[in-house]
Amino acid sequence: MSAPARTVAPIEREEVAASRRPWSKGRIATHIFLGGMAVLWLFPLLYAVLASLRSYAYTSEHGYLSFGGFTLENYSKAWEAGDFGAKFLNSAIITIPAVVLSLFFASMVAFVISRFSWKFNTIMLALFLAGNLLPPQALLIPVFKLFQRVEVPFWISESGTLLNTHLAVILVNVAFQTGFCTFVLSNYMKALPKEIYESAMVDGTSLWGQFWRITLPLCRPSLAALATLEATWIYNEFFWATVLLQNGDKFPITSSLTNLAGDFFTDNNLVAAGSMIIALPTLVIYFALQKHFVSGLTMGETKG
Asked: What are the residue boundaries of the ABC transmembrane type-1 domain, all occurrences included (predicted)?
């Protein structure tokens, strides 16, 4: 029984050796370049992790290029000084509804664009993409004035307007992110076999049933990939939060780093620890959805 194993293994090793390309000068230069870029890319992150684990007293005495003075106190101090518990809750209130609404609206628009051949499909898709190309700074004053005049019930806002509410930040993020999601999902849905929908129509499935029971389950990889990207972008968004929110208690987690910096003195190790805490949720989301991330972005790219 062991004889075939001994004969197969050398053959596999010979095939692997034959498939290896020779180390030419170009290949060596490529590996050196990629290795250098990887080090440059990882250096700030690794340095921030190292700084977050060191005490300020040690680094002030021995310098930041020294090695030692390790402690976890920076993380507990950063959590208390930055009020991270309340700010994490604010970010969740903004990020979760914004991601869900963006994907839901974009999937419905993409379904219509991909399933029906209207002459306005290209125009609609171009309009959605054009919204993403506009710089947010150009829309700052119009959006601020608009939200200042839109009246809402007092149980939503004490001022009676959309300004200074989490709802305003959610709406502006949904408006900006729906275009990109529509573009990605429409390309993905165009790659789905038409025979599935023809069979569904023969079985008497309604249009809503084709969207809800057929299209959305098939788009799960692309929806997972977009959910990862959108959660990261909206979670890290700070511009519209500073424009539309005026009460510091409603600010998202990205504003907590400013609470760790003083006017005359800043503990860089403390700020590094705060940055690590803030980055943790995005890493958790990525590793939880990484199975669908790459496949969701690449599938459907052959259809325009």
From this structure: 88-289
